[in-house]
Specification:
The protein is of the alpha+beta class. The protein has a single domain, classed as Molybdopterin biosynthesis MoaE subunit (Aldehyde Oxidoreductase, domain 3), CATH 3.90.1170. The chain is built from three helices and eight strands; from the N terminus they run E-H-E-E-E-H-E-E-H-E-E.
Length: 148
């Protein structure tokens, strides 16, 4: 594993729209980029056993999760021709309708951006030890099971 700089992935609470917009805007000065692909994971108000999800409260084994994020990042850079990549995931409570995962990749060409973004999201869901507790309107909860 390389000793490249580790990027902080976790943010407290929801990932705000202005943060996403600012991240996009910062890339306009990078003239070698021809494509961006973005994945935004938004909290749904699913109905489970007759109760509506109001929020998800995320927790993680942070040190292990950060290591897994780094491994995914390194593998993506080795597998796709990327110019840059940003990954942010929420910890704590995120309400229905808010963003909890922001993956932003840039490359010279769209195919690399599309393929890398999908790869990264699927790897996160499969390998990173992040746990979501779905909170219902009555403040009861159930542990979230990752699905598509």
């Amino acid at each position: 594993m390389s000793e490249k700089k580790r990027h902080k992935v976790f943010v407290n609470g929801a990932i705000l729209p202005n943060f996403i917009a600012e991240s996009i805007a910062k890339h306009s000065s990078k003239k070698n980029i021809g494509a961006h692909d973005i994945f935004l994971g938004q909290i749904r108000n699913d109905i489970i056993d007759g109760k509506t999800v109001q929020a998800i409260e995320y927790s993680a084994y942070e040190e292990m999760a950060e290591e897994k994020f780094h491994e995914i990042r390194e593998k993506a850079f080795a597998s796709f021709n990327l110019s840059c990549m940003h990954i942010y995931h929420s910890l704590g409570r995120v309400k229905a309708g808010e963003i909890s995962l922001f993956v932003f990749v840039s490359s010279q060409h769209r195919t690399d951006a599309f393929d890398a973004c999908r790869f990264i999201v699927e790897e996160i869901k499969a390998k990173v030890p992040i746990f979501g507790k779905e909170i219902f309107e009555d403040e009861t909860y159930s542990w979230k099971i990752n699905t598509d």
